[in-house]
């Protein structure tokens, strides 16, 4: 163990469960459990495979927690998300996550004593401090109150000129809420100006169209942001950010607002990034900041023409990729997610195959392995990425690549080359985020079909399956009051919920290879995603390390 400075990755044999079974680990993205009504797309959709698993309750089907403290988030009101969900699934322990670590560092003021802040503050005297990130209180990638504290703290510590580059949300929060967030920020900046700090919003755009792409799905998204934030160029120019967002919302929702820059009376951008400036990307979550971090930090970079590469002092709110050490400077140390189940399993002879399509590929690899890119051992692992559709919203293609993922998993299972075949099936989540109920129903059906393909293959080889999800989304598509009734807006329209939820998620085990007597324990009623890793290790024939959250299963003598 780590105490001796030397980690032993040898796992003990499970006293009752055999090794050598082929195991499918299926993660349905955005698939929670909620009351069956017309806004529950999983209920409305035909999902015979997932329905049949439910019949195994309570021994082989149950619910587990996927939000709040169970996944290391600050409060029980925090909905789950893919990063914390897959971290917990893969690491088998609950780590205080980025959101919480940033809260603590801001509350104690330690954020200002760290190397990262000292580094950027060297630019305060002569340069501008630029803050780039998601503007909402969603708590998935960033939080407004953290931005507010950072603005205050940085200005008190000498930042004289500050520019904020906002990315509007509408995905973790209600569509349309961007206007209010920009107004709040404008008020804060006005207060700073009263104190003599030259603080303004400089540019903006919707998160899904500007900057926050992930896993290199579409570099144009990042380029659009670069042009606005760094070069000060965008198709839309406004004098005022509230006006910009209101106007651009006439033709797009918050997630997809086109890029805009704020200009002065001479039509000149008020905040391009230039030599000598400091830049902080304020998101704590990694996946959708990595691409921008590369553009800001790498000297050799050929993903798009940056035109001008300013000499800046750049820090991330966190370090986003532990393996790439990206970015090299950061304000808050990320959670140290070590000794993940993936790392243990390769050391114990378990050959692993992982697959999803681009938009979720890093979830079953990077997040699963504790925010670490690459293989632990390329001889033992194969990760396959199926290219996602680019440049569309997924309600247009709600089936996404579910069947292709199913096929790849099936082939990997049948090949006999792997002991664990792990997939993420994205549909419930990606289509759920569009708020399109009809399309989300189609999405859920497609996800169910993909699960069937995988379970059929497991049946054929005498293997074991474990099917679960990372957090809720498609099971509830409307905002509700405390008693669960759908809420209407001022115009009497339903308030569509594009975000994740706080609902629990299902977990099911089965397959011909599952030893008789294996069943879910009844004494882990509060089990959550972090309990899954020990469970999977048991199914591979091993006992999990002592400090892992306990297994969900037991073997009854019969
Ligand atoms: O799309 C994303 O970035 C988040 C929502 O903000 O979803 P998920 O956690 O499922 O990846
Ligand atoms: Mn997810
Ligand atoms: Mn999501």
UniProtKB/TrEMBL annotation:
User: Signal peptide location in the record?
Assistant: none
What species was this sequence derived from? Gossypium hirsutum (Upland cotton)
Function in brief: Catalyzes the interconversion of 2-phosphoglycerate (2-PGA) and 3-phosphoglycerate (3-PGA). Required for guard cell function (e.g. blue light-, abscisic acid- (ABA), and low CO(2)-regulated stomatal movements) and fertility (e.g. pollen grains production).
Gene this protein is translated from:
LOC107902893
Q: Which cofactor does it need?
A: Mn(2+)
Tell me the ranges covered by the Metalloenzyme domain, including all copies. Answer: 21-542
Give all residue intervals belonging to the BPG-independent PGAM N-terminal domain: 103-321
Cellular localization per UniProt: Cytoplasm
| Active-site positions on this chain | 82 (phosphoserine intermediate)
- Family, per entry: Belongs to the BPG-independent phosphoglycerate mutase family.
Report the protein name in the record.
phosphoglycerate mutase (2,3-diphosphoglycerate-independent)
